[in-house]
Amino acid sequence: MFTDAKERAKAFGIYGAIAGGGGAVGLILGGFLTEYLNWRWTFFVNIPFAVVAALGAYFVIREPAGTRNRSPLDIPGVVLSTLGLVALVYGFTRAESEGWSDSVTIGMFVASVVLLAAFVLTEAKVKSPLLPLRVLTERNRGGVYLSLGLAVIAMFGLFLFLTYYLQIVEGYSPVKTGFAFLPMIAGMIVGSTQIGARLMTRVPPRLLMGPGFLLAAVGMLLLTQLEVGSSYTGLIMPAQLMLGLGMGTAFMPAMSLATHGVEARDAGVASAMVNTSQQVGGAIGTALLNTIAASATSAYLVDHVAGGADLKLVQAQAMVEGYTSAIWWAVGILVVSAVIAATFIDTGHQGGPAASGDSVDGAEDEVKIPVMAH
User: Fold this and answer.
1) Which of 296-310 are b and which e, b meaning 16 or more Cβ less than 10 Å from the residue's Cβ?
2) What is the DSSP letter of 3?
3) Confidence of residue 66 (pLDDT cuts 50, 70, 90)
4) Which fold has domain 5-69+136-344?
5) Residue 23 Cα distances to 16, 218, 271, 372, angstroms
6) What is the SS3 assignment for 47?
7) What is the 3-state secondary structure (H, E, C) of 83-151?
8) Nearest to 371 by CA among 8, 1, 16
9) Is residue 345 helix, strand or coil?
10) Average pLDDT, stretch 32-47?
11) Is 203 helix (H, G, I), strand (E, B) or coil?
12) How many CB atoms are closer than 10 A to CB 188?
């Protein structure tokens, strides 16, 4: 909807601020609901938001002309992609309790590979694919989806482990934990509105995304130093600020580039893939990193539980060992995201020429702004 470069940057900046503000409200509201009502209310509370969103979508949003896809739904694509992703996530989840060598765990991973391969083959052959492969094979868009998906794996893992650490190890209340995440949200808002959105019309996306993911990796690296009793202001807060600044800086140009110059018929798919890559990354990150953490915690307990040991202290140390082991993996994942962004993405800044391979002839096609998951 915003095709002028400066207006597009403003739109994404405002969008980023609202998304970040929503994330802050969600963390704090989740703490209040959990502490004063019941954790199940964190699910119930989504119902009124969903109703308002549905009504707003119906009465307010007007679809750009020429973008409606009237082709029949790609049922095989829907079934194969859904089952493939479910098998993948369930495989990681089962590995936590049954181990990596469990026959069902291995079977889930094999089934996931087969199903997702069949999905790709199906999309290449059907007349109206759910996911046209031309959207993924365009170098810059493919780089955005892959780097974002990997970065979210690391980010969702951090949310999980830092929540565990603050509440279980440090004894924070749910409300205090919600407020403790505010530095990360503040960093994301500043990174997206004051750095990413302001510079994406002047600086090539790879020069914002690559350094942004590396800054987030440095923040994550600090958290590998967590111990029982670590200082919040001396370690956790600065790590969160760096992580938020880095992610916010990288996300804005990434989300804009994902739909920059896309054909009108692919606008919906291109923007939806941003959300999909984040949702899939979040699901895999939670399952994979939690499995790694649980394995490291179990190994630590086996090695350190002995007669006369302070069992409560050893258990806390074992949990922190599990968290830091998984966070090391998150650091590596963010570095890989930075490398992908720096090498795959080769377009100029979004105030200049269109991305290589885009089908534009002097003006961008109309696009939809993608939705960022929190």
Assistant:
1) bbeebbeeeeeeeee
2) -
3) low
4) Growth Hormone; Chain: A; (1.20.1250)
5) 10, 22, 20, 10
6) helix
7) HHHHHHHHHHHHHHHHCCCCHHHHHHHHHHHHHHHHHHHHHHHCCCCCCCHHHHHCHHHHHHHHHHHHH
8) 16
9) coil
10) 90
11) coil
12) 32
Report yes or no: 312 and 117 within 8 Å, Cβ to Cβ. Answer: no
How many CA atoms lie less than 13 Å away from 216 in the CB half-sphere?
Answer: 38
DSSP 71: S
Determine the Cα–Cα distance for residues 196 and 178; give it in Å rounded to an integer: 25
248: part of which helix (H) or strand (E)? Answer: helix 237-257
- Alpha-carbon distance of 181 to 23, in angstroms, equals 10
Surface-to-core class of residue 235, CB atoms within 10 Å of its CB (0-12 exposed, 13-18 middle, 19+ buried): middle
Task: Please state, in angstroms and rounded to a whole number, the distance separating the CA atoms of residues 205 and 355.
Answer: 10
Q: Mean pLDDT, to the nearest integer, of 58-80?
A: 78
Secondary structure of residue 57 in the 3-state scheme = helix
Map tokens 């998906």 to a residue. Answer: 149
Can you say whether the dihedral through the CA atoms of 261, 264, 269, 271 is positive or negative? Answer: positive
Average pLDDT, the chain: 84
Kindly state the tokens that stand for 124.
Answer: 């290449």
Is residue 71 a contact partner of residue 128, using CB atoms and an 8 Å limit? yes
Transcribe 251-280 into DSSP letters.
HHHHHHHTTTT--GGGHHHHHHHHHHHHHH
With residue 198 as reference, give the H or E element that holds it.
helix 197-199
Instruction: Delimit the domains of the chain by residue range.
Output: 5-69+136-344, 72-127
pTM: 0.82
Q: Does the pLDDT of residue 155 top 70, yes or no?
A: yes
Residues listed for the chain? 374
Residue 281 CB contacts under 8 Å (≥ 6 apart), including other chains: 148, 149, 150, 151, 152, 153, 156
